[in-house]
Known about the structure:
Shape: globular
Structural class: alpha/beta
Radius of gyration: 15 Å
Mean pLDDT: 94
Strand content: 25-35%
Distance between the termini: 32 Å
Order of helices and strands: HEHEHEHEHEHEE
Amino acid sequence: MKKVFDVIKSYVGNQKHMVEAYSGIGTFGLALLDQLKSCVMIESSKDNISMANDIKDKYHLDQVKIVHARAEQVIDEYDGDILLVDPPRQGLMKSFVDKILEMNFNQMIYVSCDVKTLARDISLLSDKYEVMHVHPIRMFHHTTSIETLIILKHKV
């Protein structure tokens, strides 16, 4: 995981506002906090939200806002410089993509465990975002699965 965090950190820069959709317990957002001004984490799982709130409270992470909701229902309520998504295997919901295309994130970081849904989603986002970098990452060394980390930039 450290390699993934290091790669992402190299693209994030400092003092940015990030929205993390499908955040789980906030693994990516929490790992990037030293570079972020603020982070909104959106997650639908009650158990993950509970764990994320425990971490936030334990470490007094005032720059973190945790939202218990389905990302596709609330993403348009939050803005930032960077959108990080780590969706489930089925990828981004069409309603989520539609809302993203109406928003103005400067950069998107997409972590995917399924190359087919990733390709579909990148195609859906291509009118507004262009792929800048692709990183295949073996996050789980005891398996043969490869995660794909995509860095997208808002087209000018």
